[in-house]
Amino acid sequence: MMTLKLSGKKKMRNTLFITFIIISCLIGRIGYIQLIQGEWLSSMAYQQQTLDRSINPKRGTIYDSTGKNILAVSSTVETVTVNPGNIAKENKEKVAKILSEIFELDYEKTLKKVSKRSSIETISKKVDKEKTDQLRIWMEQNGISSGINIDEDTKRYYPYNTLASQIIGFCGSDNQGLDGVEAKYDEKLKGTKGAIQRHTDAKGGEIGEEGENYVSAIDGNDLVLTIDLSVQSIVEKYLEEACIDNLCTDGGNVVVMNPQNGDILAMATYPNYNLNSPYEAYTEELKQSWDNMEQAEKTKNLQAVWRNKAIADTYEPGSVFKLITASAAIEEGLVTDIDKQGQFTCTGGIEVAGVRIKCWRYYRPHGSESLRMGLMNSCNPVFIGLGQQLGVQKYYSYLNKFRLLNKTEVDLPGEANSIFLAENKAGPVELATISFGQRFEITPIQLVTAVSSIANGGTSIQPRIVKQIINSETGEVEDVPVKSKGRVISKETSDKVLSMMESVVAEGTGKNAKVAGYRIGGKTGTSEDGVNTNKYVTSFCGVAPIENPQVVVLVTLYNPTGEGGHQGGGVAAPVGGQIFSEILPYLEVSQGNQEELEIKEELEAPDLQGKTIKEAQKIAKESEVELIIENETEELDKENTLIKEQIPKAGISIQKGSKMYIYY
């Protein structure tokens, strides 16, 4: 009896002990979950119970230098998604059917999305409101109020299609910048995403009656470029004509820079492409074979046209580089009187370290010359001799001062650097060839920046593409500062070189760049594109007006194979002249040579905006101006299509016979 009593007490003690252990473990576990894992589990629960649909912000608008002409803008579109768990089983097929019909999608794939065991599926992105309105009407008629979401989105649009394509760049499907300014300034332009939050169960069904929580997106900042729409349009027109007329197999580019502040007024590459369809064939030749082309070949062609040759491709500048040699020689006192006849003598060539280097006119030597005559004649021996007097170390110090050994740091992606032989490896022959512009490579932007240093009185200025950033929330304007990189040459040296450049255009190899009424200086260049390729690069670099330079223009044409040949004076200089003849009046640059001015009747540019193309053609004919219709097609309805933009603007003073560009 006693034994049984003790045994019962023992069992009770054991039971109480075990119970205590279990309760202690449970309390410990609860404490661990609450104190240690609490924050993490709360976060997981929130993610599971909250369905976020992102709202894309409006990407910032990109304007030209006037702040009025829009080069890139985000328009409002919509994105359609579904919550499969909120669509009744009996409605899934008809929902899939209407979605596939309105948005032109594959029915089976759409049905698969509508039937998935997931919280959210994307049906169609960046849809025009016209189509989503059809869906809204259908939903109302069929009594479906949940499971289908229509959210505001944005789509990038480029009003001028191909204009400045390699500068502006384009965006991907997720609103991110992929090239050009769009990529370089992506952080400024893209804004901050918003969200629509809703409490759901694991299948995406709604929990409770709290409704949706809307977090607004913050729009991106706007940019004001240095690019002038009118100047860019003029430059692109003449560049295209030059490349076609001279059969430039590898295209060309033009850079227009204000030497006083580094503003790039225009930067054009030919061929260009349509920013609204950057993945499509961009020439008639490519369009014929595009559908049958391998993807790798398509990608190669697209990357080639996206490439901004002015900053990404290097070339031998040829005789234009003699401006750098002349500047260094004058600055170092090797030449004090640029008109001293007999200071140099051309015998058809010069021997350097046992190698005879010919003048381009070796068959009929230039004979006795001053430095001015040497530049006008583009005589190689003159500049080889100056290079020898400077020596490698001093010459390379000037390359560094002119920032030709470094990138310009222009605010665009993909800038390449120059290719020079290392200073310690440059011998007499290498120095000789550098002195007249061969056997090294630079980019067009490096050359136009160096010549701008000569044009502005001797100071190196960093080129820029963006001049202002406008805050989308406050409207505050942030100016992008002009950056000076230090003095390169004196004002006196600058004046002497500009005087010689004026003589080159007035009487020398650059005379085809003359523009009546304006004092223009320049230098032509011709070089081989590689060794033994039988290809050439022809160029012209001009400055205007000489008395107060406001514009530097560099024209570079790659492998011209037309009847006009490949010499800079015959092929590139005329393009420079055409560009100057239109942009100088537009920029209201004063005329310095009134005695040379060809008198033409002036008139105010007529107002064509809002008129039909047919009406505009009649007005242009009466005003005796030439009307250029951008992106004209055979199907264009000229009687009903309205003009939305014109260049030059209405009211600007132009001469009879001038060209006017219209956009519809």
Q: Which percent bin holds the helix content?
A: 25-40%
Number of helices: 20
CATH architecture of the largest domain: 3-Layer(aba) Sandwich
Biggest sheet features: 7 strands, mixed
State the name of the first-level CATH class of the largest domain.
Alpha Beta
Quick overview of this protein structure:
By secondary structure, the protein is an alpha+beta fold. 36% of the residues lie in helices and 20% in strands. It is globular and about 130 Å long.
Describe this structure in words.
- The relative contact order is 0.09.
- A hairpin with a 6-residue loop joins strand 16 and strand 17.
- The N and C termini lie far apart (112 Å).
- By secondary structure, the protein is of the alpha+beta class.
- It has 20 helices and 26 strands.
- Helix 1 packs across helix 2, helix 3 (92-102) packs across helix 4 and helix 13 packs antiparallel against helix 18.
- The strands form eight sheets. Strands 2, 3, 4, 5, 8, 16 and 17 form a seven-stranded mixed sheet that branches.
